[in-house]
Design brief:
2 domains, globular, seven-stranded mixed sheet, about 15% strand, 14 helices, Rossmann fold, DNA polymerase, domain 1, alpha/beta, about 300 residues, single chain
Amino acid sequence: MIHQPVMLEEALAGLAVRNDGVYVDGTFGRGGHSRAILEQLGREGRLIALDKDPDAVASTQARQLAEDRRFSLIHADFNQLREVIEEMGYAGRIDGILLDLGVSSPQLDTPERGFAFLHDGPLDMRMNPDVGMSAADWLAQAPMREIADVIRKFGEERFAHRIARAIVEARSRQPLLRTRQLTALIERAVPARERHKHPATRTFQALRIHINRELESLEAVLEQAVDLLVPGGRLVVIAFHSLEDRIVKRFLRAQSRGTPLPKGLPVTGTPSPQRLKVLGKKRPDALEASRNPRARSAILRIAERRSC
């Protein structure tokens, strides 16, 4: 299957790509957005892409784009953005940053990565398999209450306690090592079904977010992104579920309002500056949503760096 970048035209419009600008694709994936940005750059333009997944960095698409002297792909989590950009000498020179959040289609479509409940594979879920604890390892030792909290918080799953209890009971009999084992366990544990949603969807999402510390990384990269943008530079973020989008929305709102001094208290100083101007949000049109199921839940938000 050909990888379809989500909301491609909207992302490019949000970035307002200048032909001599310097841009960052914080989530290279299979390079759909990166390739489109490069097509709009002139000879003096520059694109820096990051991805924590070694499969993305080693992909055919990455090797093809590596031939372009305007392009660099760094194997790094986007929460290392500041470090990467400063080391390359582009701090304060970035004209646009794109973040396409969540799991990519190639990751979901590769059973060996353990992200998908529809395929059988090792219960891994790490975006960088060389770093951290796999989902199987974490589920083997985490207390039931902690498992339930993760599933409830990151999956917004109302049957989190039932699922956690089933996991702990099952692991006492045999290790949970495969995605199919966990999927079957969840199907038995969940007493009610949501229309058009597999009962394992929320739990797999929760475990993936927890194992990869996705929300913590998102909060970190948003702060770094604002510091790295030039005045007038754009930040474009595509989120796919409410937890991600809530963080992005609140961050953009706070940065656009600044922090006022408390009224009626003897506090001196000045309010923190309004660092961003929010330019709006977009959703995929009906045609894209019908052609690309992954796009259906996408929300794209755009903000511009103010002069402070």
